[in-house]
Amino acid sequence: MSRIVYCEFLKKEAEGLDFQLYPGELGARIFNSISKEAWGLWQKKQTMLINENRLNMMDANARAFLEEQMQAFLFEGKEITVEGYTPPQD
């Protein structure tokens, strides 16, 4: 049976993550209050940020930047904009 959490991102109850995907206190907060759906949306943004900014994930500054963006996106409702990226038009 899946876990149900109140997703802070979607502002509704939704299926929670199966396990903590991120370390530490922030990881626990994500596990307890971010849904699978919201995490999937973040992962798409994260991939775009890494690719467009050519981030080296071995670099502590790059990881810190991504963590800031993740918190802003998941918990503060901030839209992540990627320089040079234009979303496809419908």
From TrEMBL:
Iron in keyword set: yes
Superkingdom per UniProt: Bacteria
Keyword Lipid biosynthesis: no
One annotated GO biological process: cellular response to oxidative stress
One Pfam short name: Iron_traffic
UniProt cross-references to InterPro entries, sorted A to Z: Fe_traffick_prot_YggX, Fe_traffick_prot_YggX_sf
Entry GO terms, CC: cytosol
Record key words, sorted: Iron
GO molecular function, one term: iron ion binding
Function: Could be a mediator in iron transactions between iron acquisition and iron-requiring processes, such as synthesis and/or repair of Fe-S clusters in biosynthetic enzymes. Necessary to maintain high levels of aconitase under oxidative stress.
Family assignment from sequence similarity: Belongs to the Fe(2+)-trafficking protein family.
Record protein name field: Probable Fe(2+)-trafficking protein
Organism, scientific name: Pseudidiomarina indica
